[in-house]
Amino acid sequence: MKTNYHTHCNFCDGIADPETVVKIALEKGFDVLGFSSHSPLEGEEWPLAHDEVHTYIQTIRGLQKKYEDQILILAGMERDFIVSESPWQEKRWEKETLDFVIGSIHMVFSKKLNRLMSVDGPQDQILELIDKGYDGNARGMVEDYYDNLAMMVKRETFDFVGHIDVVKKRNKVIGFLDESDPWYMKKVKTVLEVIHSKSVPIEINTGGIFRGATDELYPSQPILRECFKKGIPIVISSDSHDPQHLDSGFDLAVERAGDAGYKKQMILDRNGWRSIAL
C-alpha cells in the first residue's frame, strides 16, 4: 500500500493547490494521501492562516468526496509546539475535525532576543539563531530543541512525531553539531524514552535528503536504530512541498528502516492506524 501523510499544499508553504496534489498522487499510484498543512503561528507567513483553517479542511473534505472511489484522502495538520503558547486543545481552531496530527517543532524561543527563531530555516537564519539568539552556544540551542520535543510528547496528543532531528538540517553547511558527540546521542535517547513511554510513532522523513539539505534521512541511522531497540513504530512520509516529490526517497526509507531492524511500518487507512509489512 502506497501512502503519504506529510504533504503540504498552497494553503501553507507548498507550491501546488490541493487538487493538483491529488491528481499527481493518483498518477504515482498512491492509495492514501494525507494533507498536513502547517498549523497557524502568529507573525509567520509560511503556515496556514488562522482565518483559512476552516476553508482548508473543507477543501480537503471536498476532494475526499470527489475522489473517494480512487484514493483515500485525509485532512490532517502539522502542528508546531511552542513552549510559551497555550496547549493545543485551547486553540481557537481546535474545534475543526482532523483525521490525524503530526507533532513537530520548527521554532525555539531565544530568551536573549525574546522571540521565536527557526531551527530549520535558511542558513542565515540558523547563523542568527546560534550567534545572536544563543551567543554562539550551538549545543544550548540543540538541547533546547530536544527538551521542547520531549515536552511536546509529554503534554500534547498527536499521531506521530515529525522529523525528529530536523535541527540538523543546516549542519551540512554550517557545521555547528557533531552528531557523534556522546552528549548528543545521550540527549536524543532521553527524548526517545519519552516517546516510547507514550507509544507514539516517529516519522522517517525523506524531505531533507531529496531537497539536498542533508545527506541523511530524518532521523539519522544511529537514531533510527535506537528507535527500533526501544520498539518505537515508524511512519514513512516525504514531507513534500512539491507534489512531484510525493514519493521521493521512499525506497531509501524502506531500505534504511530494514537495516535498522524494522519489518513493519504504520499506516492510517479506513481501518484506522495499523501496521503493515515494509
Account of the protein in words:
There is one protein chain. With 278 residues, the chain is an alpha/beta fold. The chain has a single domain (3-103, 144-277), classed as TIM Barrel (Alpha-Beta Barrel), CATH 3.20.20. Helix content is 35%, strand content 19%. It contains 9 helices and 11 strands. The protein has helices at 18-27, 53-66, 123-133, 138-155, 171-174, 182-197, 207-210, 221-229, 250-260, and strands at residues 3-4, 32-38, 72-80, 100-104, 107-110, 115-118, 160-161, 202-205, 234-237, 264-269, 272-277. The strands form 4 sheets. A 5-stranded parallel sheet has the order 1-2-3-4-7. A two-stranded antiparallel sheet has the order 5-6. The chain is globular. The protein starts with a strand and ends with a strand.
